[in-house]
Amino acid sequence: MMPMTVQEAANAVKGELKGIGEDGKDRPVTGVVTDSRQAGPGTIFVAIAGERVDGHDFLGQVARAGAVGALVSRLVPAAGVPQILVDDTVKALGLLAAHNLERRRALQAPFTLVGITGSVGKTTTKDLLAAMLRLLGPTVAPVGSFNNEIGLPLTALKVGPATRYLVAEMGASQVGDITYLTSIAPPDIAVVLKVGVAHLGVFGSVDRIAQAKSEIVRGLRAGGLAVLNADDERVSAMAQLAPDRVLRFGLGSVERQNGAGLDMSACAIETDAADHPSFQLQARGERPVATSLALSGVHNVMNALAAATVAHELGLSSQAIGRVLASQGEQSPHRMAVGQVGKGAGSFTLIDDSFNANPDSMRAGLKALAAWGAGPGSDSHNGRRPYRIAVLGGMLELGDDTMDLHRQVGDLCVRLGLDALVAVGGHGGRLSAMADAMVEGARAGRDGSGLRVFLAGDTDEADRIVQGLAGSHPGAVVLLKGSHLSGLDALAGRWSEARFGEQQ
């Protein structure tokens, strides 16, 4: 964080400072938190009133922890900590983050802010790019998906005088969200990965989703750079909104795209037995570089290309980019994280992608599972691949298309030749209806295929089913994927206690 005092913070958010003497106004602020458990000496605590928990109830706790102030929307008597009174603490958090970034830019030392958006791939791309940029200078990037009106400001507030790069995710659940985020953190470089159907039920149409994602390009600083996926028509069309230069990435040779060419490309893609892609990485005007990914899944090639395009533009060589891609596994939890669960009979390989799900990421995860090759000890029925089990939860916010999209997931499990589908419901209600739809789609498309279909009422039942299947099929591979509210991350946590090794 940039050096500032309690008084400066209050001024930045246009707040009224209460419960503090003149000497306390000059106390330094060392950080900003929204979780009272993270409060410590020098921090400002942002009291957010949520549906279940009200941060104003924890002012006494943060005072005892040494906080120098609290952003509040109502005064709390005898709290023991100076309070900065504002109308809306979340908006005040954004104002404070914007002030912090303005202070950093005022230093006149080089500083670059990269914003990343897209229906899928934001967190993986952010992690890859952050690893690359750390080779060039001090880099701030969030762990996990801090990409909303709370997470992005908290990330921006970690920028200090020595920070050279900030990599920020920008998510949207409605039109206007990214416009707000870019008002806090206007990017020098805007990356758009893909327009998919995540949150389709909220947006109403894919065109509205594209409109929301395009806001990051509209929000570029003067002279800013747009980095766009040339293989997505809606993303590629955003070039007309860019204030200045545009770089494009995609699959194939750099000379393709109707003569327009690509600035970063991947071709000759192959995968190994664990579905780790290898390919030829080529920047415009350079020779191809043989590259491999430590990440699983062909879909991650596009994420790697997006990160590579930005890093190369900022001065990192293609060879150095390749070394990062070959060594950088998943950094954020529950995102295609691969590990071994258990030992001996009944052990299995877990692909934990349980953080969230939408139709695009679900298809990518299932294709990665389908491509998983035979490993040591596999007794696959076809002699070439391990027994592949998809444990799937529901996908939320898909509107009127919800059930049809879930039936398509079940059908895809059949068409990909998977061995077992375990659709996990939630003791009735919407999640159970989604699981039923997946089962319906799988059974309708099965037509004599070998896919075994199971309907689990909850994660406990899913656990029992998987343990039974893994016990009968040594070397099995299990994909765990569903929307966050499906609760599959709890199952991942249970299985993680039995892990004895991690793979990259």
Tell me about this structure.
This protein has helices spanning 6-12, 59-65, 89-105, 122-133, 151-156, 177-184, 200-203, 206-218, 233-236, 300-313, 318-327, 359-370, 402-415, 429-446, 459-472, 488-496, and strands at 4-5, 16-18, 28-29, 31-33, 43-46, 69-72, 83-85, 112-117, 139-140, 165-169, 189-192, 225-229, 246-251, 264-271, 277-283, 289-292, 337-341, 348-353, 388-392, 420-424, 452-456, 476-481, 499-502. With 504 residues, it is an alpha/beta fold. It has 3 domains: 4-89, MurE/MurF, N-terminal domain (Udp-n-acetylmuramoylalanyl-d-glutamate--2,6- Diaminopimelate Ligase, Chain: A, domain 1), CATH 3.40.1390.10; 109-327, Mur-like, catalytic domain (UDP-N-acetylmuramoyl-L-alanine:D-glutamate ligase, 3-Layer(aba) Sandwich); 337-499, Mur ligase, C-terminal domain (Protein-Tyrosine Phosphatase, Chain A, Alpha-Beta Complex), CATH 3.90.190. The strands form 4 sheets. Strands 9-10-8-11-12-13-14-15-16 form a 9-stranded mixed β-sheet, with helices on both faces. It has a 7-stranded mixed β-sheet with strand order 21-20-19-22-18-17-23, sandwiched between helices. α4 (122-133) runs parallel beside α10 and α13 (402-415) crosses α14.
CATH fold-type name of the largest domain: UDP-N-acetylmuramoyl-L-alanine:D-glutamate ligase
Cα radius of gyration in angstroms: 24 Å
Total count of domains: 3
Number of helices: 16
CATH superfamily of the largest domain: Mur-like, catalytic domain
Backbone shape: globular
Question: What percent of residues are in strands?
Answer: 15-25%
Poorly predicted runs of 5 or more residues = 374-382, 499-504
Q: What's the total number of strands?
A: 23
Oligomer: single chain
Largest beta sheet: strand ordering: 9-10-8-11-12-13-14-15-16
User: In CATH's first tier, which class of the largest domain applies?
Assistant: Alpha Beta
Mean pLDDT: 89
The CATH architecture of the largest domain:
3-Layer(aba) Sandwich
Helix content: 25-40%
Q: What would you call the structural class? A: alpha/beta
